[in-house]
Amino acid sequence: MQPSAQPSARNAPLDLCAALDAAVTAAHAGAAILQSYAHHRADLVIDRKARNDLVSQADREAEAAVIAELRERTPHYGIVAEETGGEVNGAATWYIDPLDGTTNFLHGIPHYAVSIALIAHAGTSVTAGTALAVDTPVVAAVYDPCREELFNAVHGLGAWLNGHRINCSRTQTLDDAVLATGFPFRDFSFAEQYMPMLHDAINLTRGVRRLGAAALDLAWTAAGRYDGYWEMGLAPWDVAAGTLIVREAGGVAEDMYGVDPWPIGGYVVSGNKAVAGALKAMIAPHLRSRTA
Fold first, then answer.
1. Which residues of this UniProt protein bind Mg(2+) (predicted)?
2. 16-165 — its CATH code?
3. Where are the domains of the chain?
4. How does pLDDT run across 47-100, given as a tens digit for each residue?
5. Is 15 annotated as belonging to a binding site?
6. Is 249 in contact with 106 (CB distance < 8 Å)?
7. Which secondary-structure segment (H or E) carries 125?
8. β pairing state of 78-81 and 53-56
9. What letter would DSSP give residue 262?
10. Would the annotation count 14 as a binding residue?
11. Is 174-286 a domain of CATH 3.40.190.80?
12. Structure pTM?
């Protein structure tokens, strides 16, 4: 688990509305750069960070635009970003994925997003007189520029899609559920655990989808398009924003191991409360401990 920032003077509650406005503005700035490259992807310079782990100048320029906006408007918060790194700092830290769904983007598949979340650190106040006991996502923005869909959420206030409140589905059982997932694509060390989970999901549910953008999988779960979603081996910035959006839509988004206060380790299970519980029970027999 990544350590929290050290406690400091955090008596004044965070201005979550101002932070949300900054996140939305930054998400649009990053998406504008992505879309400027969308019709000439063949000209992009693509680097390979690892097997099936790609980065282009679109990712880098979008991230720079997002960071510039957030640093100007919230200079006192830390920043952790996919391409340039950063550090946890202050009362809260931004987690940024400038292009969630890079492989989709590079292949012309119109399913990708900019994902931005603010994680308030333990000891920070988000309401007067109340300090958070653990690190907690408190502001989120996930913007899909292809559909012009903006998902956002604020801790304790709710989740929205293009200004309309959203809620997780009301599906009560796995056999009526459509689930989303992500196959191992970069880290194959957990494949032996994952494949039996997928086998069970195929046989026990109405259907399983894999569209290749974790932030949108979580956002779509919050909007009731999926009833549940699980994935392994992700990065913190993949799931930070979506975790809050699901939670504020009345659902569950948790660390698969039940250890971290949010899925910072990249092992996430989510859904409405009924489906999330059934999904956790389905994957539990196949899940090894972290030390295994």
1. 82, 97, 99-100, 238
2. 3.30.540.10
3. 16-165, 174-286
4. 665 454 445 788 889 999 999 999 999 999 999 998 888 899 999 999 999 999
5. no
6. no
7. strand 125-127
8. unpaired
9. S
10. no
11. yes
12. 0.92
